[in-house]
């Protein structure tokens, strides 16, 4: 983790200390999730109603995309976008398009990951996956349409920073980021992988997009470039903490709680935190990564009682 | 076709009359293709050399993407971007990123279309398709990476128009455009389709991206909004003329000349110009659509001897 940027407090300090109690945190989490759903309803798919100016999608595509986009989920990425936008002094409204765009990218990646030629998953968020319901061909195209929609939504934001925001998202989502992480996930051999190999693929596969969520939130909130970089570093650290818990849950979780098929990593021979350091080793790594994420959060100028630290704890102790 | 925009001549007239002879046209086509390849070399994949500041892609992804991106092709879309940028008074240099972005989007769409769950094609541009060489999973991810790269490249353009250009590309490529056209191609039944159904799917599948190529060229060249819309209309008309010839070649062409497998539309039961109006009917439709594209070109203020009209003829009489 890099040392805290010197001007970060000035960017984020006004936000520190919010939501001191567990009850307030849970209420904030629920409200943020509701807000995220609303932004997805607003931007996720074209509005083709009587007053909608947008050209419609063909009905089969719209239906499959709607099924996939509104199938639950933690909505962690839009929540982070809003959190960092407000922390930087911006409004939730200003973060609306970026929040929807991040979830669109995340959702497309799940649709393509679940394909038979990739992870071949039948279950996602407790429901049949997109290709199980609509077939493989339409699932490929749903993913393509959601990814393209993410950029369309973000490009619709006014102001000179729109192209900059789009570049942040594209870098995090593309071959050097999330897609690259998926490639490593598929190609790195479990038997020959080192903990560093696994960390690198997790930083790309999970860290890059969570980093982009925090960075884009900060950016739309008007944070300085240094503070935006600090936000990205925190998001990446949170992603690493998140992924190691995910790896452990693949071993210890059950389908009902997880909402997806457990044991997939093992069945696919994937290199994970558990395969390179064992279950106990992965639990120790989870503790260390959560500590690193907390440190990164403190570097932003958030106080210990802030939402961000509670979010780190919340994700570290999750069971799904 | 809409009536010509009133201020189009002022935007494009300086370009008219260029390349009067067939020899000059062929030389221009060859030079434009070479320029297009150079822009793809420059922007298509991350530059990770000693002075390259970009984060690298994992080696298997880079290799498969490189194989796919540099496998020949007419490079029609970047050629149109440059043509319209120069016609509007702009420079080839100013059109460079948009040219690469259009070809990236086109190439990703071919990779996904060729997948076993889609058209299941073994041959593209005379070579084995991406998934035949690198496997299905990597082919899905190559497509995802190329699409994302297109937006990254275009977002890197400086200036207030970058966000507008991004929106034009996303709309043309997404669910209401090219991806939507693919969905219709898969779901419209050949037996029950009308000529209008086929025309609608072709306008989305092929017309939208060619329209975006012309529009983005005009936009980067500094054309007025009305002239940009005229450029898009011409590109869509060219796309419709192109697609009907493609449909006929699927019946009459051979694999060596086409560089792809003939008879695919028929084997897949697709609704094409040939299935709804027969081969002779499709040839008549090709003549009518080429005439419509010429009319749209004349509406832009190009003279009859211009490159654009020669391009319409060239594409209408092609054998691959």
Walk me through what this model shows:
Two copies of one chain form a homodimer. The relative contact order of chain A is 0.14. The longest helix of chain A is centred in the C-terminal third of the chain and has 28 residues, at 225-252. Chain A has helices at residues 8-12, 22-43, 59-69, 76-87, 96-113, 130-134, 136-155, 162-173, 178-187, 195-220, 225-252, 255-258, 264-268, 273-299, 307-316; strands spanning 123-124, 127-128. With 320 residues, the first copy, chain A, is an all-alpha fold. Chain A has one domain (8-316): Orthogonal Bundle (Farnesyl Diphosphate Synthase). In chain A, β1 and β2 form a beta hairpin. In chain A, strands 1-2 form a two-stranded antiparallel ribbon.
Determine the CATH superfamily of chain A. Answer: Farnesyl Diphosphate Synthase
CATH architecture of chain A: Orthogonal Bundle
Q: Can you tell me the CATH topology of chain A?
A: Farnesyl Diphosphate Synthase
Radius of gyration of chain A (Å): 19 Å
User: Element order, helices and strands of chain A?
Assistant: HHHHHEEHHHHHHHHHH
Shape descriptor of chain A: globular
Counting structural domains of chain A, the number is 1
Q: Work out the helicity level of chain A.
A: 55-70%
The order of strands across the largest sheet of chain A is 1-2
Structural class by SSE content of chain A: mainly alpha
User: Which assembly state applies to the chains in this document?
Assistant: homodimer
Low-confidence stretches of chain A: 1-10
Q: Kindly report the greatest chain-chain contact and the residue count on each side.
A: A-B, 57 and 54 residues
Mean pLDDT of chain A: 88
Number of helices of chain A: 15
Give the strand tally of chain A: 2
Report the major sheet of chain A.
Answer: 2 strands, antiparallel
Taken as a percent bin, the fraction of beta residues of chain A is under 5%
CATH class of chain A: Mainly Alpha
N- to C-terminal separation of chain A? 27 Å
């Amino acid at each position: 983790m890099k040392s805290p940027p010197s001007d970060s407090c000035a960017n984020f300090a006004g936000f520190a200390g919010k939501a001191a109690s567990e009850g307030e945190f849970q209420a904030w989490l629920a409200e943020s999730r509701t807000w995220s759903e609303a932004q997805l309803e607003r931007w996720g798919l074209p509005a083709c109603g009587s007053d909608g100016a947008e050209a419609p999608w063909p009905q089969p595509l719209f239906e499959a995309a709607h099924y996939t986009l509104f199938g639950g989920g933690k909505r962690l990425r839009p929540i982070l976008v809003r959190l960092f936008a407000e922390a930087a002094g911006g409004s939730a409204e200003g973060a609306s398009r970026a929040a929807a765009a991040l979830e669109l990218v995340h959702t497309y990646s799940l649709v393509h990951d679940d394909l038979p030629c990739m992870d071949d998953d039948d279950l996602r968020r407790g429901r049949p996956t997109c290709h199980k319901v609509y077939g493989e061909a339409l699932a490929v195209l749903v993913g393509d349409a959601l990814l393209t929609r993410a950029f369309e939504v973000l490009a619709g934001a006014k102001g000179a920073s729109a192209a900059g925001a789009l570049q942040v998202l594209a870098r995090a989502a593309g071959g050097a980021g999330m897609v690259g992480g998926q490639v490593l996930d598929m190609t790195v051999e479990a038997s020959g992988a080192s903990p560093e190999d696994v960390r690198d693929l997790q930083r790309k596969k999970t860290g890059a997009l969570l980093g982009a969520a925090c960075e884009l939130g900060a950016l739309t909130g008007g944070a300085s470039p240094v503070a935006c970089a600090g936000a990205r570093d925190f998001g990446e650290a949170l992603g690493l903490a998140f992924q190691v818990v995910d790896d452990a849950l693949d071993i210890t979780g059950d389908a009902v709680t997880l909402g997806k098929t457990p044991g997939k990593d093992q069945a696919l021979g994937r290199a994970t935190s558990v395969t390179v350091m064992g279950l106990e080793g992965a639990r120790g790594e989870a503790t260390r990564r959560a500590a690193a994420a907390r440190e990164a959060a403190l570097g932003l100028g958030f106080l210990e009682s802030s939402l961000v630290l509670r979010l780190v704890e919340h994700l570290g102790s999750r069971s799904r």
